[in-house]
Amino acid sequence: MSVNRLLRVGTVAVASLGVLALSACGSDPEPSGSSNPSSGSSSTGAADCPQGTLNAEGSSAQKNAIEEVISKYNEKCADVSVNYNATGSGAGIKQFNANQVDFAGSDSALKTENKDGGETEAAAAAKRCQTNPALNLPMVIGPVAIAYNVDGLPKLVLDGATAAKIFQGDIKTWNDPAIAKLNTGATLPSTPISVFFRSDESGTTENFTKYLAAAGAGAWKGEPAKKWTGTGAGKEKSAGVAEGVKSTKNSITYVEWSYAVDNKLGVAQIDNGSGAPVELTAESAGKALAAAKPAGTGADLALKLDYATKEAGAYPIILVTYEIACSKGLPAEKTALVKSFLSYFAGKDGQASLTELNYAPLPEEIRTKVDAAIQSIS
Amino acid sequence: MTAIVENKPAYDGKALDLTGRSGARAFKNTLATVLIVLAFVIAIIPLVWILWTVISKGYHLLLNAEWWSQSQRGITVRREGGGAYHAIMGTLIMALITAAIAVPIAILGAVYLVEYGKGTKVARAVSFMIDILTGVPSIVAALFIYAVWITVFGFNRVGFAVSLSLVLLMLPVVLRSTEEMLKLVPDELREASYALGVPKWKTILKVVVPTAFGGIITGVMLGLARVMGETAPLLILVGYSKNINLNPFEGFMGALPTMINQDRTELALQPAADRVWAAALTLILLVLALNLLARLVARFSTIKSK
Amino acid sequence: MSSPDGTEPPGRPAGPEPKIEDLVDETGPALRFDALAEETDDDGRRTGGTAVATKDDSKKELALGPVGHLGDRLFSGLAHGSGAVVILIVAFVGVFLLALAIPALADNNSNFLFSRVWEPGGAEPRFGIAALFYTTLISSVIAMVIAVPIAIGVALFVTYYAPRRIATPVAHAVDLLAAVPSIVYGLWGALFFAPILLPVINGLSSALGWIPVFDKAPGDNVGVIFTVSVVLAIMILPVVTAISREIFAQTPISHREGALALGATRWEMVRMAVLPYGRSGVVSASMLGLGRALGETVAVMIILTVPNGNDPWDPSIFAGGETFASKIANNAAEFDSPEKTGAFIAAGLVLFVVTFLVNSAARLIVARSAPGAKRPRRNRRAGATEGASA
């Protein structure tokens, strides 16, 4: 009986709670940055603050960066909702070209050639933009870390060839002479190396294999691609490989720096041939980017990275993530939204918030070019 | 399954040999009891463990009023605060649309199979189709709707498209369980009703369905529970939004499974991990609330029919 | 197939006409049972469309004299319509997916059924489902072997063994677990459950490692098929239990008490009255569970590691792998060309053909093993009663 009554009371309570939840109007949380309490919810700087919703999708490598920027941007422009879905670079471009999102995030610039002989990404994007070219706007630099989990090995040095051999499966144990040579004095276990790779197609894999191909002195046998062609066990997304390394002893993977830091994994230093091993920092990653050359012309800012750089103090495995947006051809209100948000992203405030998240900000020279390109959107 | 298959049907005469040595029979009985209790214990350990994980890691966020009334707008994985209002509403809206489409078709379909079409070719075809539908994985259902909704019609990704794909998943669950329940309604009840001159449709509506109502509701709840926790269709058919969007026909929409999916990528960070388990607990509580409501409805409707 | 209900009217009692007429609401003349049954039968044989059914009704009515009930026609139309909707939906899904899959299959340069490579798209697409098929099937089969007996045990415990005070909360708790989304099972499995399975995996592989299926590669990888199977078993347990419980609870009290009155022990009562009665329901429940295990996406994707393309194929359940669903979901973000998408859809089609075959097989087993199961209810019950009173 008492159980029955309890059930009934519970039912009524839950039912009323449900009704309450349905009827009560939800709200957005107060902007957390209490630094400018005077601004409140009213949008300051109304001039560059349009109203509306902006939908974007793509690279998961820039997820943390863009979310931080969105959060900061909303403190300034409270009436704009920006959604970013981190589903992967390929998906971002697909959705952008299918007119499902307003801009895309991608770890590589739009491809201007198609191996299969079909329509190129760039051509499809231009079609979506009412026959106007789409812009590749470099926005965030995400260094890729070689993350490992070996007890009693606080510091690990690798060079391109050794890394390529490990990820190719040619080096199978931690105490291999090639690793020992780079890590004199370290005690290396004789256990097998468990390699984890990204099982989904990923821009991170593409950039990392580009590095292995460029700096691996021929030890990397595959073509650089979004799909992994080396050895190991695959886990899904960056979170999966990071979690795999964290929970498996004597393992190694490649993952965006922020995941390695958040999961407290060891990060290998890279001997790029300059003589001294380079630790992964915002500066060392920025140095490598400064060596990058523009691959496109005019307002197209696609960058060509030099993975085999031998510059002292430059960390060579970096990944540039782009925002892909129409240069022209969007409806007027969307154009205003895209311009407003992206110029905040490329602005000094937007870029400054990225370093604490283990991304590297754009070098000033490139940043001004990107900003100019965004202003040219109409 | 094997246990059942090996059992001789009850009426073949042999199974009713109750004259054996009582010691052996008592031993068998004890053994069976031990095994059944053991099965219960084995089952309950992981289930309690999962519930405990979700509850202990998720409950504290649920105690904040802002969890129930605020969205995640402007909250990043590194930051605490915000709520799940956007996701709760998204999940409810999509689930209710799904149920509104799937449940009538499923119950009427089951009524057709049991009361009208039994033994006919069409009924066998429907049954066959339901079997096929049971085998459609959520990801394929989602792909199908993607192909129709976006590739063919050129619409945008919206919550309604998710509901459509969830209909494909909910339909067979509800239909099959309803069918089983209707089958179990004794023919005496139907015959008694017919004998009183009650027309068939009224017999079904007032006698057969109410008798099986508890079971039907369980089926509907299982179906709802399944679709509310589905992640794959949400990933393909609607973008995730941290902002509140209550319109199933326009724009990205939050939902609890995609909220979990967003934050699970950063489980190493405490604020994100807290939200993952809290969102999971919220989803479970939502289904529980629906369940209790349904039981309440079931109780009232049974009283009425008597 | 025995004759459908009602074509043999003798068994039915025919009440005195006038009295029935008094009880009938607005219809007036009572419908005769044989007429009612025939109508049902005929409707069913036709296409199930509303129009046909109505037309048929009117024909019958002419023969019978009195005008039929509007409600009956409407309701029967709705029921038939729903049946038709189900057929149409599945046919549409099937045709649509086939249309997407066939071009990709036509361009395929590998044997779709027996190849293990998966390189769709490109100038020379090559893809086959052998490895996916194996992983999907073995992980689900292991999950079923673990889950179904336990689920039946729990359902029996709740219905006939546990005191009511325990049974009710347990039943609610199990229902609750059906509500835990698969993504949570996946996270829990990967983070908390998989690590404790490592000793089990190592123990099993060192004891049985001489069989290739139990062989294990060096390393501490727990993202293996076996782990997935156990998590899948836990996932489908609530579903199978909940339905089985409902079915067992429906066993007529006369059967149970009859058995007990004859001096049967509790187990004998369960074995003779409850299990035969619930057999088809349990099989349906298991099939729903199997469907869920075969098609489970996110949990498998989170837990299972994917083997790289260079290593030779490893049939071990202590190795990684990919199921149909996890393969599709893991690559869903990159469906950028119709050929690629078609390849994945073809894989999806195979998945539900498999599910369907398993389903049919199970139904066949039920029909064979229980002569009463496929007969009309009356006969089955009569058989059971006869048995109980023999």
TrEMBL record, chain A:
Compositionally biased tracts (Low complexity): 26-43
Binding site for phosphate: 59-61, 89, 107, 202-204
Alphabetically ordered keywords of this record: Phosphate transport, Signal, Transport
Domain of life: Bacteria
One function term, GO molecular function aspect: phosphate ion binding
Residues in the signal sequence: 1-21
InterPro entries xrefs: ABC_phos-bd_PstS (IPR005673), PBP_domain (IPR024370), Phosphate-bind_PstS (IPR050962)
SUPFAM superfamilies: Periplasmic binding protein-like II (SSF53850)
GO biological process, one term: phosphate ion transmembrane transport
Location of the PBP domain: 47-347
TM stretches of this protein: none
GO cellular component: ATP-binding cassette (ABC) transporter complex
Region (Disordered): 26-60
Membership in a protein family: Belongs to the PstS family.
NCBIfam families linked to this entry: 3a0107s03
PANTHER family the record matches: PHOSPHATE-BINDING PROTEIN PSTS
Record-given protein name: Phosphate-binding protein
Species lineage: Bacteria, Bacillati, Actinomycetota, Actinomycetes, Propionibacteriales
Gene name, Swiss-Prot/TrEMBL: pstS
From TrEMBL, chain B:
Protein task: Part of the binding-protein-dependent transport system for phosphate; probably responsible for the translocation of the substrate across the membrane.
GO molecular function: phosphate transmembrane transporter activity
Subcellular localization(s) per the UniProt record: Cell membrane
Keywords: Cell membrane, Membrane, Phosphate transport, Transmembrane, Transmembrane helix, Transport
CDD domains given in the database record: TM_PBP2
Protein family membership: Belongs to the binding-protein-dependent transport system permease family. CysTW subfamily.
Species name: Kribbella sandramycini
GO cellular component labels: plasma membrane
SUPFAM superfamilies for the chain: MetI-like
Residue spans crossing the bilayer: 31-52, 87-114, 126-149, 155-175, 204-225, 276-298
Biological process according to GO: phosphate ion transmembrane transport
Protein topology in the membrane: Multi-pass membrane protein
Protein's name according to its UniProt entry: Phosphate transport system permease protein PstA
Sequence ranges assigned to domain ABC transmembrane type-1 in this UniProt record: 88-294
UniProtKB/TrEMBL annotation, chain C:
One of the GO biological process terms: phosphate ion transport
Transmembrane segments: 83-106, 129-162, 174-201, 221-243, 281-306, 343-366
Domain ABC transmembrane type-1: 133-362
Segments of this protein annotated with the region Disordered: 1-24
GO cellular component annotations of the record: plasma membrane
Keyword Magnesium appears in the UniProt entry: no
Keyword annotations of the record: Cell membrane, Membrane, Phosphate transport, Transmembrane, Transmembrane helix, Transport
A Pfam family this chain is assigned to: BPD_transp_1
Cellular location(s): Cell membrane
Single GO molecular function: phosphate transmembrane transporter activity
InterPro entries in alphabetical order: MetI-like, MetI-like_sf, Phosphate_PstC, Phosphate_Transport_Permease
Domain of life: Bacteria
Major location category of this protein: membrane
Bilayer disposition of the protein: Multi-pass membrane protein
Record's function text: Part of the binding-protein-dependent transport system for phosphate; probably responsible for the translocation of the substrate across the membrane.
NCBIfam families (UniProt xref): phosphate_pstC (TIGR02138)
Similarity remark: Belongs to the binding-protein-dependent transport system permease family. CysTW subfamily.
Protein name: Phosphate transport system permease protein
Species this chain originates from: Kribbella sandramycini
Higher taxonomy: Bacteria, Bacillati, Actinomycetota, Actinomycetes, Propionibacteriales
Gene designation: pstC
